[in-house]
From TrEMBL:
This is Mitochondrial import inner membrane translocase subunit TIM50. InterPro entries: FCP1_dom, HAD-like_sf, HAD_sf, TIM50. Residues 1-15 have a biased composition (Polar residues). Residues 1-32 are annotated as: Disordered. It comes from Ciona savignyi.
Length: 340
């Protein structure tokens, strides 16, 4: 009897020890990181489960007038739960529109009328990587470096030739003081910032061979139809081709400035813009479309200018060559007749 009870007790102890070992192994298998992930997941689900119905109830109820009477809308005839959800979703889209869409459908005031002077062309140009570039210095920290030729460029293309508009992807708080310090003589007539552009959630595939992984690559799209200007006389200069994608025929995409202190791009750009303006073209878009076909439009313009200058020089030399030829021919004929 004693032996049987003893063996039964030993079996129970072994069973309890086995359960404890199993529980101990189970506890050891869940690391602190996994536990925190589990807590975070359930916390997130709980938050969404509580906040979503509250959001629908608060934002999905119908509007009321001053007397508290319900105002009928396009959802009033639908079942109450569906009407609440549709109104709440409409509120979400309204907030999204405020964030994504330009702040105004009319970005610039109406063109100036006499007795004031309105430049015949409008130049819309980006600030970052065209005029300025953020650089880091171990002594001064982060600062903005000015591109060589800014003062010359603005003096050459500013009024009365172009209405200069800086349209930047930066916020007004960042860009306003930079423009003030860059344009001390006031050539820039208007300033447009990030809120005047359309936010787009872009995506970059990257290049695995160069170690670049796929990533989100948002950008700001500049829609010139809100500019309140004749687009046949608008030139937009930027370093991001996506910024011009709504009106690519108005865009001139340059290479980003890499910070080189010997850079001459602004001098070349000023020459190109002055050539367009002094030619008094009715529509700038065919010219911009031609140069947009090159990876470096400014280099293509310089080559075209050099070729045209060479042809002009050859044309000037042709009358001189012909006169010398005629003189030699006449001299030979006169000597021939004298010998006769």
């Amino acid at each position: 009897m004693y032996t049987q009870n003893q063996s039964t007790g030993e079996d129970q102890n072994q069973s309890n020890d086995h359960k404890k070992d199993s529980q101990g192994k189970g506890n050891k298998e869940e690391s602190p990181f996994m536990r925190s992930q589990r807590y975070a997941k359930w916390s997130l689900l709980g938050t969404v489960g509580i906040c979503t119905p509250l959001f629908i109830v608060m934002n999905g109820k119908p509007k009321t007038d001053e007397e508290g009477n319900e105002i009928l809308d396009e959802y009033s005839e639908k079942p109450v739960p569906i009407a609440y959800m549709k109104r709440a979703w409409a509120e979400v889209n309204l907030v999204k529109k405020d964030i994504v869409e330009p702040s105004s459908k009319k970005l610039l005031p109406d063109p100036l009328e006499e007795p004031y002077y309105q430049p015949p062309y409008t130049l819309v140009i980006e600030l970052m990587d065209v005029f300025l570039r953020p650089v880091y210095d171990s002594v001064t920290g982060w600062r903005f470096k000015k591109r060589p030729g800014i003062d010359y460029f603005l003096s050459q293309v500013g009024p009365p030739m172009y209405e200069v508009v800086v349209f930047t992807r930066e916020t007004g708080m960042t860009a306003f003081p930079l423009i003030d310090s860059m344009d001390s003589k006031g050539y820039i007539m208007y300033r447009l910032f990030r809120d005047s552009a359309r936010y787009q959630s872009g995506f970059s595939l990257g290049e695995i061979t160069k170690g670049e992984m796929p990533k989100l690559d948002p950008y700001y799209q500049k829609d010139l139809k809100y500019l309140n200007r004749d687009l046949s006389r608008v030139i937009m200069v930027d370093c991001d081709r996506r910024a011009c994608e709504k009106q690519p025929e108005n865009g001139l995409c340059l290479n980003k400035w890499d910070g080189d202190s010997n850079d001459t791009a602004l001098f070349d750009l000023a020459a190109l813009l002055r050539t367009i303006a002094t030619s008094d073209v009715d529509d700038v878009r065919p010219i911009l479309k031609h140069y947009s076909g090159y990876s470096d439009p400014l280099h293509a313009f310089k080559l075209a200018q050099a070729r045209m200058q060479q042809e002009t020089t050859q044309l000037k030399e042709m009358p001189k060559t012909n006169s010398e030829l005629f003189a030699r021919t006449g001299s030979a004929l006169s000597s021939f007749f004298r010998r006769r």
